[in-house]
Amino acid sequence: MSTDVVTPAAERGPEAETAVLTVNGQPRELQVEPRVSLLDALREQLGLTGSKKGCDQGTCGACTVWVDGRRVLACLTLAVTCEGHPVSTIEGLAAAGDLHPMQAAFVEHDAFQCGYCTPGQIMSAVKLLEEGHASDDAEIAEWMSGNICRCAAYPNIRAAIRTVRDAAGGERR
Amino acid sequence: MRPFSYARAADVATAIALVREHPSSAFLAGGTTEVDLVRQGVLRPGLLVDINDLPLDQIEDLPDGGLRIGAMARMSDVARAPGVVQRFPVISQALVLGASAQLRNMASMGGNLCQRVRCSYFRDPASPCNKRDMGSGCSALDGMHRGHAILGGSEHCIATHPSDVAVALTALDAVVHTTASGGDRMIGIDDFFLLPGATPDREHPLERGELITAIEVPGWPAARRSVYLKFRDRQSYEFALASVAAAIQIQDGTVTAVRLALGEAALTGRPATAASFAAAAREELAQAETRPMNAFKAVLAQRAIVRALSTLTDGKA
Amino acid sequence: MMSGYIGQDIPRVEGPAKVTGTAPYSGEIILPGLAHAQIVGAQVASGRIISIDTSRAERAGGVAGVLTHHNTPKVNQVPLVPSLLGGPAPGQTFFPMQDEMICYAGQPVAVVVAVTLQQAQYAASLIRISYAETPAVTSIEQGRADAYDADRIFGGLIPGRTARGDAGAGLAAAEVRIDAPFRFAANHHNPIEMLTTTAVWDGDQLTLYDSCQGIKAVQLTVAALLGISPSKVRVLARFIGGAFGCKAMVWPHVTLAAMAAQHVRRPVRLTVTRGQMFSSCGHREEQEQQLQLGATRDGKLTAIRHRKISVTSPFDDWAEPAFGVASQLYASPAYEGIHRLVRGNTMTPTFTRGPGEALGVFTLECAMDELAAELGIDPVELRLRNLAGTEPGSGHPWSSYGLPECLQRGAALIIIAPLEPTGEPVPGRVVSPNSTRTSRSSTPSASAATWVSTVGVPVPNSWVEVATTAVPSAYRWARARWVRMKNATG
Q1: Structural domains in chain B plus CATH codes
Q2: Predicted-complex ipTM score
């Protein structure tokens, strides 16, 4: 069964109905109402609590995930809109027991304190490098401005990003 | 949030038919406004029609040097499109200075134009708000209005439109293309954003079931020399207190053409000097109506205009 | 061996858990049969509930129960005592939903429990409440006329007045006087993880998964409120998403979660929304401070008069104590610090990042800078001339005293530069934490035109409004100063 099936114009809801989302490469079936955010679907129904709810209104970035390979906010994304659009979360960044270079760099540079913004920061930072917006600290700060850290680990977050950028031979000014 | 139904439209005709037929329905594009305001209880659709599959995301270079930007093109994609960056830097700058990277990946250009105001009273269902409920009053007039409008407001509503790229598109005389069951039409950008007047609930002339399909920007070589400046309390990820989009054409030290977001300034034919810029800016802001908390904006806006034009003419754009 | 790690650069042991999103925070505990609770907060700041209609909410899909003041259990009266004393520590001497009275905007007036989070949130919006609203006082300005000198503050731990010598006489005898007012907006902690409590009853045994800064305080407070033995209350808090002081005292939502779980006979998770965070866990109070300094021409302080006025709740005389360090820092023979309070319709304020001292020392230091300008003395030199070899109040020797060295090293490391002319000083100018103005000076000198430069550093919580005093015409500068270490990164 293809997970790319898109239901044409047929209305669904408001009751919960079956939706199949591809999350971290795996098809996941869930019963979900249209009003359920991707964030709540991940956390409450799929047990993927790595993506965090810091505001539920698109201002903090703690819920940053990837949809179709782009960094987006899960709190303002409806889960049903993700059918046919693969979702990646922090849990899928590396195989169990391994650390993605960005995750390792965050640990090495102590780029967190409470850790609650951290998954969102990391998901955002990985895409930042792919997008090519990490040439210097000012650009990193600007293009990471959608991720708030109330513990103010920003200097260390930037250091972690620089480390991964440089290890990958990234452009720097 | 309240329960609602959902339908994903595979084509434009289905999308507009669905919305037209369901009185309390709305289009769902990036969702950055819609999902937020439904969750706040400000918007109450019974049906959301997902238009993200519609083939409206092209960014085309037109023969006259202009652009045709599909309504479903994402802010981030438009911002980095080569034609935009080279020929209309003001658009690219306005886009990347708006929102955050994540939001720019989600938000569509059409949705950007249709986004709702940031007035905190509008966004709070418990507060009197003429935009939500005409006649209930405007809480901002004597409330917290630091970020509210000094131009274009009325006694019923002083909320500002938060879009940055709308300012740039206004400066460039863009045209909004729409389609509805009755056919297609074009709406000049100046006519797209309605002043609140006595009808603050009407923000644009779109009818229910009328879908923006594209935004066209006319070709104009001078737009290569354009800039968007945004002034706000924080360095990033915040709405503007004042902003200006400007493009200028100079020949032998004289301004031959200029576009500002506030419309044609009294600058054409004048020398391209800071003094002219300041005089034009003063004229633009002469009609400003300020209130105690936002009076500073009149000065800020004038200086923003001067700064934008000076930036372009000093070659620091 | 443990000693091998001291002084080493060691990665956090919980680092891998945090970067992989596997660290379990309190709102992420999955329990069988878990239901979700949503608080409804009062829409008026003062008054009473005339009627509360929960019928639509109760009929809404998935709703397991609704609590209001009609059916919420009565709690014991447990007074506010700062949690650092090790006992029950409610953040305010008040528990909501005990009667129809409204004391502050956002005060919980109902709790809705439903099977899913969305159902709870939506049902909460269906509750219809009508209020008889009465005039509220929520700012210093509104309540200034009725302000009173506090006898004791900070949960009764600290006297409202700190004094030595005769400040009035000292000021009168001074050759130079400074009068510096400061105004601060209220600050809210807003850690990125909202308050969240998951409550599970097993018979009469209660387990709480709570995002808190002290599990003992939570245990004792909930037990005291509910009138049960602390041995019946178990609290777990494995990972906390920040607090900054707002999760040290125990706020009503914790016990409300326990009550909700009891009411619906299933585990309940209650998470406060971001908007509700502003009315759920205290804050740093709106305050004004006024510094009057008197000194001799050669810079010796004769008196410091330090006044603070701030808003507190209807229930408690709370102020963050501003005068602890400020009264001890300099060898002024006279010091008088007075906390005045305005009774307002707010929560009781609470510990917030450097409670009291952060602002109390800031204002004193700003006033000292102004004194230095007035005297034409280098600001660091002025401090050195006024250091106290012993504790100024009691005369006790310091157990250790590195302040002179600290000042001198700081002066060497910190860029000392003249401020750029700012034009007319702007009364009440809001200073952005991110505003940056720097200019370099060749050498720090005793010149009166030498000032610490104004450079922005990230300040997590506060916006500072600073009112200028009458400024000597020769010097125009912005009042608020932030200092950047020369070697700082970023």
Answers
A1: 5-50 (3.30.43), 225-313 (3.30.390.50)
A2: 0.94
